[in-house]
Amino acid sequence: MEVTLQQANKGLRGSLEVPGDKSISHRAIMLGALAQGVTTVKNFSDGQDCLTTLAAFKKLGVEIDFDTQAKKVVINGRGFHGLRAAKEALDMGNSGTTTRLLMGILAASSFETSLVGDLSLSKRPMARVTEPLAKMGASIKISSQQTLPALIEPSSLKGTTIRLEVASAQVKSALILAALQAKGESTIIEKLPTRNHTELMLKQFGANIKTLADGLTIKVQPTKELRGQELVVPGDISSAAFFMVAAALTPNSKVKLINVSLNPTRTGILRVLEKMNANMTIQARQSDGEPLGDIIVESSKLTAIKIGSKDVPALIDELPLVALLAAHADGISEIRGAAELRFKETDRIKTVCQELGKLGVNVKELQDGMVIEGQPQLRVTADISWDSHGDHRLGMLGAVAALRNPGQFRLKNSQALGISYPSFLTDLASLIVG
Question: Using CA atoms, how far apart are residues 180 and 186, in angstroms rounded to an integer?
Fold first, then answer.
């Protein structure tokens, strides 16, 4: 589907509460299903990826009620041993999170499960999950290309020590969820710290899990029972980031994002905006489980930035936005140590460079990132056809890029936005000054 994107010639103004965090919503369904008793989830993300997780657990025998208007989910948990074999292969759609975390959950099950995915997901690497799970005794068969489809076979897991070779919260979480069902303690050692939503939520549900002082080592004890909880999902900072960047780049703008997750393993984009001298205010509040707050961003004159491998885990999903910021900043910016971008919904290094090039941005593609020559006065008068390549974040990036460019902006494959944020274009339009 193709749509015409809007300009914001008079700027962006107003307040917005973005949908619930996608990562947290996935995990709330999973832990609620594995817990004893009822779990209530408010402000659940209604993006397609999270609906994929919800549908998968229904097919595994979990009773789940989703009020789409109230964005509220009620889960009647079945415990670790209460899941039932699905009658057919579970369709993972485009969701890598659902796929990889389910591998960990089902590795200790007493029945076989097949996982399939769409064309994009079926190109993404899965051995990074299946190989460390095999060290715990899991038996998961994948294709000769090390991708989906997957067959998860019944196994008995044993606790062990695993040092992760990639910085991936999905891989870490799969191992943690398997370790809860293993015999004996498990130790998981990360390469770099990654988002810790699984660890925080498991503590709320009563699991015996702790992260050591080095921030990299996680100790997991076998857990017989999780207890159902009442959860409120904070706003997704990865979704809010598009509006932050839109306000920073668009003249005469001031936007307030309300109740956004401020988990420090996810706030890399805030540190980037600060380093680039963005006009930004953060009003933090503490809540149960996850920190959150409001973020106010105004039009800004930006300076170039250098991103390295240690910066990447906390803003892996926001790096396309960093590239757009850099395109409008004063100076030459570098993004390095981000080869993981090549294994997302698209090869995001390649596709971001390709689409920015349509704006006349001087960008050089590197194996692990890109070099971008900023143009503070960059405005495109020519007509642009921006392609999401079926990648939701690339589609939203195009909508932000269109705001300050007077030429007609067309977005190809706009349906991809529904993967994480179905109402994104409507919410963005609500901030455009008429």
Answer: 9
